[in-house]
Amino acid sequence: FFLLILLFYIFISIFHQLYISVSLTFRPMSLPVFNHNLESVILQMTSLVSFITSILPHCNKGIRIAIYVITIISYLTPFLFVPMCGNFLTGNHSSIFYSISATGSIITLINFVFDVTDKDMNSVIFLFEAIILIIFLIVFTILKKKILLKSLLVLDRIADNPKSFDDEISNVFQALLYAGAGFSAGNPFVCNWTFMDMIIERWPIVSITWMLYARFAACFTDENSKLLWIDDKFKRKVYPTESVQIFHAQIHYLVERRDASMSPQLKKKVSECQRLTSSCRSKMRLYWESVLQGNPFDMEATAFSAQNANEKAQSKIMHFLTLFPNNQYLTQSFL
Hints:
Blueprint (H helix, E strand, L loop, with lengths): L1 H18 L16 H19 L6 H16 L1 H7 L6 H26 L7 H37 L4 H4 L3 H13 L3 H4 L2 H9 L4 H12 L5 H14 L4 H16 L6 H30 L2 H28 L4 H7 L1
Helix pairs in contact: 1-2, 2-3, 3-5, 5-6, 6-8, 11-12, 11-13, 12-13, 14-15, 14-16, 15-16
């Protein structure tokens, strides 16, 4: 039975690895992380914790103690690998993730104590778990704000004195953390690519630096030339692994989709988006006219019609944005 469970876990882990693909753009259906490797590690660790805790009741006391230790270590490892893999896009996601990890380790430790002493767990523990989660959430939110402020101050010092780059930043992981913090906060030193140029000049053969640079540049529709420049340098300096080759293909695909000449297919999509948004605005105008006139009979019908038009337009535009990622014309229709 244990071997069947182990094989099932390996099967799920393989599918997790296949599901997490390299993506040039930040996808709404993926975890909000700067590096796709972090998403893969989180899914693997989640599967590991679920697997070892599921076999816990079927083991003897000695093995249960070992499993408890492994579970606690698994809950604490995110504090190491999350910063090394680029962190989350926003501080809120980081605070929630760290809070859940810390709470999980504390609750596992409490379960370990009750299990070793052969005592029954009281239902009050569940209330205690919620209180611990709230406390950790507050603590990590405050810490993330302080870390973000420190990162921005470091970026400002480097911007004022570029020669201090080597003194302020000791390793590539620290540089990527500062880059992510600056990009999420809209720091001009990061968004004008000066800091990213310093990073790739310091660590030119580290693939993660080029991938993060390309993901940042892909967010701006007028940075096609920068994306092609990154692609050219990327090919020359980094060994062409499978993920690197996928990144190259996505860069060229995205640049072609952003072609300013606009293909007939794209023109048709943009026209349809403009038609849907115009229809939505007109129905919204009818609704507000009925509100201003105080006409209760038309308010419900116009509100329902405006809501349907808004949902239809949003659904179509989001679908077109998946076909033409970050296209400036479709983005303008969405805004």
